[in-house]
Specification:
The protein is an alpha/beta fold and 138 residues long. The chain contains four helices and four strands; from the N terminus they run E-H-E-H-H-E-E-H. The chain has a four-stranded parallel β-sheet with strand order 2-1-3-4, with helices on one face.
Length: 138
């Protein structure tokens, strides 16, 4: 019997930067473990252009080809919700498991600060993937 695929939503208010990076890295680094989605309570007309540029440089991922700013209502029901560190009331989304990664929003900051945030997300995606794999195999 095939197990259901775990669905993970990366959530932040505008769904334009950290959650988009997490969706892209989730698809790249953990697609064999979980499906990645991102969403917010508000949308922006486009993904943060610094995030787009730096993700192209570091991972050759063009987030604008497959991703766009979405509302919580635009994604399917999920099993896991990861909030990025909203510093406001984080959006509520029904799920089986939730955690907050408490990441600073690098919008408007230097490339170095963006790169640091991207590295943090990369590490956390790998850790989350391992935890989900361990949980599923139990």
């Amino acid at each position: 019997m095939k197990k259901d695929v775990v669905k993970v939503a990366f959530v932040c208010v505008h769904n334009s930067c950290r959650s988009q990076i997490a969706e892209a890295l989730g698809k790249r680094l953990a697609c064999d473990v979980f499906e990645s989605y991102s969403a917010g309570t508000e949308t922006k007309p486009q993904i943060n252009q610094d995030a787009v540029r730096l993700m192209k440089q570091k991972y050759q991922i063009d987030m604008e080809k497959t991703q766009y700013s979405k509302l919580l209502s635009d994604i399917p029901p999920v099993d896991v919700v990861i909030t990025m560190g909203c510093n406001v009331d984080c959006p509520n989304l029904p799920c089986k498991y939730r955690e907050d990664w408490g990441l600073e929003d690098p919008t408007g900051k230097s490339d170095e600060e963006f790169a640091y945030t991207i590295e943090q997300i990369h590490t956390k995606i790998i850790e989350l993937s391992k935890r989900i794999q361990e949980y599923i195999s139990v």
